[in-house]
Amino acid sequence: MSDAEQPIDGGAPDEGDDEFEPIQVFPEAEEMDLRPGADDCYKCSTCDTNCPVAAVDDEFPGPKFQGPEQWRLKRQDDHDIDDSVMKCSNCMRCDSACPSSVPLSQMHNTARGEYVEQTMSKLSREYLRNRMLANYRRFAPLGATFPRTANFVLGLSITKWLGEKTLGITSERELPAFATETFREWWEKRGGNAASKRRAQDAREKRGGNAASKRRAQDAREKRGDNAASKRRGESNQPSEDKRIAYFHGCYSNYNTPEVGKALVRVYERFGYEVLVPDQHCSGTPMFANGMLEDARRAAETNVAELADAIENGADIIASCSSCSMSIRQEYPELFDFEGTEDVSANTWDAVEYLRVHEDLEAELEGTSVGAEFDDFVYHAPCHSRNQGLNGQTIEVMDAIDGIDVHDVGDSCSGISGTYGWKAENYETSMKIGEEMFEHMADADARTGLTECPTCSMQMEHGTGYEITHTLEVLEAALVGDSSETDG
Amino acid sequence: MAIEDDVLVVGGGIAGATAALAALETDPDARVRLVTHRQSTLRHASGLIDVLGYTPAGEGPLADPFDALEALPTGHPYERVGTDAVREALAFFDRVVDGAYEGGHTDRNALVPTYGGTVKPTARYPASTAPGLASDTRETLLVGFETLPDFDAPLAARHLEAAGVPFDARGVTLSFPGIRRDDAKITRYAHLLDRDEVVDADSGERSARDALAASVDTHLEDESRVGFPAILGDDRVETVREELAEALGVDVFEVPMGPPSLPGMRLEGLLYDALEDAGVRLTSGVPVVDYETTAETAGGTTDRIDHVVVDRNGAEVPHRADQYVLATGGLVGKGVDSNRERVYEPIFDCHVSHPADRYDWFVDDVFGDQPYARFGLEVDRDLRPLAADGVPEFSNLSAAGAVLGGYDFAAEKSGSGVSLATGYVAGTRAAEVGGR
Questions:
Q1: Fold classification of B103-257 (topology level)
Q2: Would you call A61 and B183 a contact, using CB atoms and an 8 Å cutoff?
Q3: What are phi and psi of B4, to 5 degrees?
Q4: Rounded to two decimals, what is the model's pTM?
Q5: What is the largest CA-CA distance in chain B?
Q6: Helices marked H in A119-182 — which ranges?
Q7: What CATH architecture applies to the domain A34-119?
Q8: Do A58 and B188 touch (CB under 8 A)?
Q9: Does domain B3-46+265-435 have CATH number 3.50.50.60?
Q10: Among A381, A419, B29, B250, which one is most buried in terms of CB atoms within 10 A?
């Protein structure tokens, strides 16, 4: 309503009836209509004050521009999308900052996608480089097939020099090493799902029939009674379906840090969960960040189908990487509408969060210790954990374990944001953003880092030289001990 | 399995943070959690701690807010908690911020110049604004920047003089060394000064603080203090201010700005540091969307909240506590919301008293006595929200801050004070009643 006009309720056709009847004044949108979100922005600039890039980079106009303002501008025929959208690191801090629930990262993702589609030359070095970085999942199998050769070649300074000169990938960073055995290779060798089922059953028996825990799982399931998956689950009678999860390992813990995936499997089996490892593609995070929406759509379609199947089989989806869970939980439903997208989103959990809600994780951890293997930690909560409300979780859980002390480095962003900090043109910005985190790490009384995000961990290591551990590895040490000997 | 705590505070502004801190101070063994969704309205706030600048009838500015507290109408949040609680809450705040704020030496209001050149009566003010008080008679130079149009220094100076301040004020507009964009974010200015980055100034490459002092120095005449918009750093504002003062040979102060506001963000930082130090468990970025009551009611018609439900991207996570504090803010913070039919409190649907006809929610004069400004929860003296029949909605829920009704914080200049006092009382009570 215009400010100048006096609204007249009686003007509505159904006079006397106070009910508000909206009328369609704009033509049916053919593409995603973000107008309501753009209209919700009242320009308070809270998002801008949360943007780690805008604080260190003069060239970046900030999320308020990238989101609602750019959305309006690009609807004019004579306005191309501003190339500054590529300077957004996709940390998504603006999302949880906005007091008005404007879907900022959704706006960024769609604008970036359109920019790459319409404006960026498909033959440019930038496009090729971004496509490669975004599709790490396609290149990793090659490296993982010849891990020693790949690690050797990637570690050579000539390779890094070439990478910077020809592709614009910074030579300042060490490329992550490929594991000599991927997580999936280990999983198959270990006996796959059949072995996991057996181990989970053993664990359940060992936990004393586990009546209480079963009841809890049942309660939790009934709570979500309106969801189709749990109804389907209710029809099945197989006892092991009581506790079943499907692990979304993502690319990094498969190819680079299989120890994280192994830790997840062992911890969940200890609680009596049977683990499934469905087929999967990249979660899409690096593709969103590089505006490769079609690549992301293809990957997401496979993931949603596979994960929906797993849910149908009575599993909840568990991710160990905070960006993978973020992507499935938030970006999938914001950007895609495959059948089952919402269901998959609502049944996907962070690995530690799930145990906290479905088991009494803190009670189980009381009195455990991790021996000499781990000492005190400095913890960095990844932005994508923060956005899921998980920023305090690791500290709370670790508090229960004897003999380790975890220091939170505060709410600064690590600055690497996935593929962002790998680009030569962003390296300096990335390190400037990370400066605060590096300082807090150096100030704390610990010399090992802890986080749940693979690229945050690269940045932490790069900026401080510390070794970085994943929270699940510590939980494994506390709850399972060293099982590598019996476990292959 | 719910996530279990003794006291659960919903809302992360001044009221919520104060409630959580007060609960832990009252019972250091209690497990206290604060759940906060979007960022609080502190980022819009001046960072000043007002208690009462004007009476509800509009008299003022008040020289001493405590003189007026006793006369407030029944139902006003200060009347609910009592004057002593306001004093205790201010003392509590002074302990929490530990020297970062001034004004605790007196009951009387200080007069702080604002970016519009008006003068605001307030009880506590950041140390960085202290040399700028309007009661101080020293000549003043205000410095604005071309790329920061929110603060027009010459206009603000003239406005201050017109308001009758007891000193001469003059304003100049400069370009900020190292800032090229017309719309650089305030965090960019703050970061440059905090980190003392090397910038490309007229005088060549030099550190940001140096370059800023040099450009101001050429404009400084007889003034013995210089006021800048509140962008002088973030974590290191006191260092920045000292260095500028030393280089210029005069006192340096900040003028509180409109949204987004660094003094508000710094206050938020102080409160969250205190929460962490105290051991409050923090869950942020996710909303409380629902609640369940226990089957057995505590007697009579009053229900007891068993747990609340936190939404994590579609997954519903139950959080259980013995006592709950609702500190979700007012109409701006969305602790009170409205549609075309009614005004309501979105989580527990606590009763919000308001006229049935929505055309009675406001008056035409924008700056008039707006009914909607007083919309919020009515509470008993334990700050428990009351249903329409005057009975507490829940036996274990209290409310604090802008979600409360019965006061117009914008007109009275009482926002931060009410949040502090009611947060302090609600948190203390939650720990006392709950206990272990």
A1: Rossmann fold (3.40.50)
A2: yes
A3: -105, 135
A4: 0.90
A5: 76
A6: 125-134, 136-145, 147-155, 157-162
A7: Orthogonal Bundle (1.10)
A8: yes
A9: yes
A10: A381
